[in-house]
Structures are given as C-alpha cells and as structure tokens.
Amino acid sequence: MRLRDCHNFHDFRRMAQHRLPGPIFNYIDGAAEDEVTYRRNTASFEQCDLVPNVLRGVENVDLSVTVMGQKLALPVYCSPTALQRLFHHQGERAVATATGRYGTMFGVSSLGTVSLEEARQLSGGAPACYQFYFHKDRGLNRAMLDRAKAAGIEVMMLTVDSITGGNRERDKRTGFSIPFKLTLGGMLQFALKPAWGINYVTHERFKLPQLDEHVDMGGGAMSISKYFTDLLDPTMNWDDVAQMASEWGGQFCLKGIMSVADAKRAADIGCTGIVLSNHGGRQLDGSRTAFDQLAEIVDAVGDRLDVMIDGGVQRGTHVLKALSLGAKAVGLGRYYLFPLAAAGQAGVERALELMRIELERDMKLMGCTSIAQLSRANLRFRPA
Fold this sequence. Notes:
Elements lengths: L8 H11 L2 H8 L6 H11 L1 E3 L14 E3 L2 E3 L3 E3 L5 H4 L3 H12 L3 E4 L6 H7 L5 E5 L5 H13 L4 E5 L9 H6 L9 H8 L2 H8 L22 H8 L6 H11 L2 E7 L2 H9 L4 E4 L13 H12 L4 E5 L5 H10 L3 E4 L1 H33 L12 E3 L3
Parallel strand pairs: 4-11, 5-6, 6-7, 7-8, 8-9, 9-10, 10-11
Antiparallel strand pairs: 1-12, 2-3
Helix pairs in contact: 1-16, 5-6, 5-16, 13-14, 15-16
C-alpha cells in the first residue's frame, strides 16, 4: 500500500499495521480491558447529525481558532503521545515539523523520545504544549517544569487521568515494554516484520530525553504500566495542582477531566484550559466519552476557561460536531500516529492535509465561513 492511496484514518491504520510488528501496532491500536470506551469514542459522534444551511456565500473559509492564548491555523492539534520513535525513527521530529508547516499546535510527552528543546526548534515557531506526568519525586517535577519554561513551551498540560496504569491486555499478551522484554509470540511478530527492525537498529539509540537523567527504567525492561504505577504520585491532589499552576504562571491545562465538578474545580484554581479525555479508552474502560460530556461541561465552565476535547476523532465532521457544542479545539491522537508509523513526516503531513481539506469542504457544506459560526443549532442528536 502506498501513501498516496491513503485517503482516510482507516487507510493509514491498515498501512501502519502492514509495516509495524504486532506488539507495537497493538500498543497504538489497543485500549483498556474490553475496549468498550475505545469503540464508543468514535461511535458517540455518529449519534449526532449535522444540520447544514445553504446559500450563505462560502467562497472563503477561515479555519483558524484561538485557544489558550495560541492562534492556530486549524481547529485541531496533535495531542502529546508517548514513545513516537518506536513507531517511526523520525518520531516527534516528524510531528513537530509537520504541525509547524500547518500552523497548529503539537504536544511533547514526558515519555517523548525527542527532547523538548529539539522539538520546539523544529516546529518553526508553532505553539507547543508539554504533557506532564506528576511523579513521586518532587525534585523531578520541579526540574521538568523549569526545563519546559526554558524551552519556551507555551502551554503546560498536566495529565490527571493516569495516576495508575490502565489494564491494557493486548500489551500483556505480547509482553510489550520499554525497552523490549517480549513474550515468545511477541518476538515472532518482530521477526515477521524485519524491515522495521532494520530501521530501528540503524538509527540512533532509543531514549527518553525528558526522563533519562532522572529515572531508571528498570534495567531496560520497565513496562509502561509499571512506570505509571511505580513512579507517578497517587497522592496528587487539587492543592498540588494549584501550586503547580501558580509556579508555571502561564497557560495551564488539565488533560483527563470528565466531570462537571472537576471542571469547575479546575477553573477555581486558575487553570486556563481543560481537555475532556478518557485517554483514548486506555485507562478506565466503561467510562463516558468526552464528546458525550462536552455540552454540560461547556455550559458549566466555558465562560471561565477553554474547553478542548480528544478521543475517537477520525473525520472533519467529528471536529465540526465538537466545535458546534462549544469545544475551542480538538486533539488528534491515533489520527496522526498511524500515518507517522506508516510514513514518518510525509504521513503526518498527508493526514493533516486531508483533515484540512475535509474541514474546509465540510464548512462550506454547512454554510459556514468561520468556526465562530458553528453552534448547537447545527446539530440534532438521535435517541440512543
């Protein structure tokens, strides 16, 4: 399959599956337990219909938005995700460069495989967020905060739904860990995809630049679940977050908010944004979808902070539905990770270009020339 033959999310997913060893593909594709929430994330958008208007004069469409003080040329951004150089040797370098070309925001993870500083430089001035995990080692937390300030990161994004690792059974079956400590079946999957292995060993050594100076990854065999369970601080509470927001002193966002009560608390302590997210269905299976929670949270706090959303987004129409309900921007995850795995920077750029084209076309078909014209009048929900 060739990149030019990829026209949507599912095409990129198939191309990535063809290229990646099973354990790595399943790390991207998998979710917690029975993966109910993972499936519902996309299905929730299908319960909502768009109501277009016509004859509105839609020759020129402005897709730009301002969110958390950042002007984005598109109403979507590349959410911070871990371990990107496992998927393709370019990793975060590809994503930072691609988002810079499209004038939108990208995120670097605490578990990123390229340094904050390098990713920031490659973005060409595009705004960046740093996805922060709160560790038991408070000295590490302080060092990471200071480093992000020095790197010029515009938005601090504290993940609050991963205080312990989700039960990701696909990873357990393959023995997926960082670095690899595979089951026999997992090793066989790598043997079946030798091109990936050649690519992996002929490029620079895998590392986690944000953590390498501070964290011993278990002698080379720490699983991601073990990282969450052993190194992150389960005592983290609202007082800790309020102090961190005050120390950061800039745009501060909580990722993983799902209830109105927590959204109000985030506003009370001075957060400037929240991301409604269930971590792509990778944490608490059976939890509510972000899209289903969006309207009530926007109604509760949308005048006090910027509300964003991620999870299950595969189409431009999904983005328009979220924006119509009041989201200020929409985060993409697997939508750009599969293209990254399939073709590196070229894949991410093609995915963003397809999203841009879809959004522009769909806005015209909706009779809208700016994101501000989208509203709940554009939507109807069907009974479950």
